[in-house]
Amino acid sequence: MAKGTLVQKIIAAHLVSGNPETDSQLLIRIDQTLTQDATGTMAYLELEAMKTGKVATELSVSYVDHNMMQNGPENRNDHLYLQTVAAEKGVIFSPPGNGICHQLHLERFGKPGKTLIGSDSHTPTGGGIGMIAIGAGGLDVALAMAGQPFTIPTPRIVGVKLTGKLRPWVAAKDVILKLLSILTTKGNVGSIVEYFGPGVADLSVPQRATITNMGAELGVTTSVFPSDERTREFLRRQKREADYTPLAADENAEYDRIVEIDLDTLEPLAACPSSPDNIKPVRELAGKKVGQVLVGSCTNGGYRDLALVASALKGRKVHPDVTFGIAPGSRPVLEMLCANGMLGDLVAAGARILEVGCGPCIGQGQSPANDTVTVRTFNRNFAGRSGTKGDESYLVSPETAVAAAIAGEFIDPRDLGIEFPVVEEPEFYTSDDAHFQKGESGKGIIRKPTIGEPPTNDPLPENINGTVVIKVGDKITTDHIMPAGVHLKLRSNIPAYSKVVFECFTEAGKPSFAERAAAVRDAGRHGIIIGRDSYGQGSSREHAAICPMYLGIKVVAALAIERIHRANLINFGIVPLIFKNPADYELIEENDTLNFTALPSQLAPGSEVKGTLVKSDGKEQEIIFTHPLSENDIRLVKAGGRLNC
Q: CA 479 to CA 610: how far, in whole Å?
């Protein structure tokens, strides 16, 4: 691991076992955890299955911010379970409407130098305040709440040196979009991004949090900024100055790679359909008609971003061809916009005020019309994530978004012809913590009939008699594997949710993935998934492992598997394998037979795994795989997952 970095210092202060100089994996102590309702229900069911008492962390918070539409009883049933299990376990509960977990946690609980894991992939938002904050599967978060250390790969540390200052109409969002254009969304597994340099001082904590939030799209373990006077100022305005600790890398810190970004030279950028690393300057998109603009989410739902949009719209109207929505990131932000009249300015301009929560960012409402460009300040634009198939979703800064809302088309906001709004931060942010609940234990846990139990898995068989149920290509996200949107309410019911695994690949009139996998399982065979590069990118949702496991999948083989998804596969007893020869991917087709003899015995750290591909004409060929499994990982997959250990 690189020397003298901030990452190195925080990890060293939390190291439980492992040597960064010699070991590929490290165990670190976790100070804080967070969960959200879409992933949290399963996490707390798993925590209950461990038969533990109160949580062992310094702080654990359960947020409700995803499933709030409440079409049917499922969502509210989940909320009641989460509220009551939190009280029993000593967890703080944040009810629906209070805010998005990442923004609220940054505002009210984040502390420089602390470690945080959360059952949401955008947990690295906390890096904006100087935390090592990592997204993880719900089972890993449950284990941390039970007092267990968390495993991370010994990181390759990428130093991003910032110089200069952002110019008017250029935003923190453009910084991370620029970095995505350099590093892309793949090939960064096991890395941590650390920001340093004189340009850091130009960025407030909320701006830094925008950058670390979308660092998740790089596929890195996390991203982190130093804790400096801007951090102290943020905490003072949140009435939490006592939580401030100065933290920075040594002046002579060594990084494994350095990327330099001059803030003076940045221009407004956009991530074009349908990947966060498909970056173009906004000026190249000028004139493209826009039908929808949405501002908010955990990436850009803070006070400064929404106040800037309100100021730009004051006395103006949204273009008549544009539907325009605002989704504040937290209740305190909404309260401040109400108090200073800016909410009225937004409404007068034609904005629709959406519920405080994740909402359209995860496909919960506000889906665009067919053949309509939607411009969003969110963090992901995977195909279909908006809820509309074939969507044209662009990711931009609030500055670029409000310009598009006014013009009705893409326009470089510097060409809008209006004065850049200068937003003055309030002396103190609204910081009413009354809505956070610290319930009394002993009252019991409410478990309605739509709440299931964590499914169990059998130990890894000696021999895998495999059938390739599906073969997919590059950049398969957890949205592809387990769709969100209207299906989110099924996450507490694994048999029901499993029916929509890989739903996006189901062809009309043909059996679904779930039906084909179940048929393979019921025939006494083992299901196999074949992927290409960057398989499992995106969300932390462990259901992308749980539901395939429920359907009998035993092996996922790909050219590369992203960190969180790989950990989730291991946690639920699915073996992740990597093609040693990438060309072998082309040899395999759906419904082929792929057998592994004595697979448990083949799984030793650093070993190769041999499989036999049998084609429909009976021809056989040996395929060699590698794997990323440590000794502990091997123990887990042999047992059929963590819940069996």
A: 30
Report the pLDDT averaged over residues 563-584.
96
User: What percentage of the chain's residues is helix, strand, coil (to nearest 5)?
Assistant: 35, 20, 45
Burial 464-481 (b: 16+ CB within 10 A, else e): bbbbbbbbbeebbbbbbb
**Residues marked as catalytic:** 65-66, 120, 380, 539, 541
Q: Find out whether 42 and 173 touch, Cβ atoms under 8 Å.
A: no
Q: Span 598-624, mean pLDDT?
A: 94
What's the rounded Cα separation, in Å, for the pair 111 and 327? 26
Mean pLDDT, rounded, for 444-470 = 92
For the purposes of burial, counting CB atoms within 10 Å of the CB of 444, is it exposed (0-12), middle (13-18) or buried (19 or more)? exposed
Angle between helices 563-571 and 631-639 (to 10 degrees): 50
- H-run or E-run covering 324: strand 323-327
Confidence band (pLDDT; 50, 70, 90) for 1? Answer: low
Q: Which residue has the higher pLDDT, 24 or 488?
A: 24
Q: What is residue 40's three-state secondary structure?
A: helix
- At 299, is the secondary structure helix, strand, or coil? helix
Q: Are strands 32-36 and 115-118 parallel, antiparallel or unpaired?
A: parallel
User: Residue 636 contacts by C-beta under 8 Å, 6 or more apart in sequence?
Assistant: 570, 571, 573, 642, 645
Fill in the DSSP letter of residue 330: B
Alpha-carbon span 543 to 551, nearest angstrom = 12
From the list 120, 84, 81, the residue with the least C-alpha distance to 100 is 120
CA 546 to chain centre: 17
Tracing tokens 């998005």 back to the chain, one arrives at 100
